[in-house]
Design goal:
This protein is mostly beta strands. Helix content is 8%, strand content 35%. It folds into 2 domains: 30 residues, no CATH class; 91 residues, Immunoglobulin-like, CATH 2.60.40.790. The chain is elongated and about 85 Å long.
Length: 140
């Protein structure tokens, strides 16, 4: 029996990139740190909130790379003069990746109470109707 993948299904022409996108998303290595929420704030906007306690604005970088929103965090070396009796606040380096759909743009980012908020906006595509003329004669 032949296995049909999403990109080879006869009714989904041109969707082969979607399958690659799903595979790439599965390989991002987001191990669960830092924890995050995704909420829909309106019909066409979303907000990603990451819990980044201990990180300052200068310790975080937000980029869009090849249709992916990438959030990186790395706390600068505080020096070795601190002696911790208990260290329970995670301050390890991280990279969290979110794949963005076509038409989704990153808006603003803000920090509040140890939470990093990133706003996303989705543009509404225009409905396009195209009429294709049928030519008489030989097909090429």
């Amino acid at each position: 029996m032949t296995k049909l993948t999403l990109g080879t299904h006869p009714f989904l022409l041109g969707f082969d990139q979607l399958e690659r996108l799903v595979e790439r998303t599965a390989k991002t290595g987001n191990e669960g740190y830092p924890p995050y929420n995704i909420e829909q704030t309106s019909d066409h906007s979303y907000r990603i909130t990451l819990a980044v306690a201990g990180f300052g604005e200068e310790d975080l970088a937000i980029t869009v790379e090849d249709s992916q929103l990438v959030v990186r965090g790395k706390i600068r070396d505080e020096g070795s003069d601190r002696i911790y009796l208990h260290r329970g606040i995670a301050g390890r380096q991280f990279q969290r990746t979110f794949v963005l759909a076509d038409g989704v743009e990153v808006g603003q980012a803000s920090m509040e109470n140890g939470l990093l908020h990133i706003d996303l906006n989705r543009s509404v595509p225009e409905t396009v109707i195209q009429t294709i003329q049928i030519k008489k004669g030989t097909s090429k």
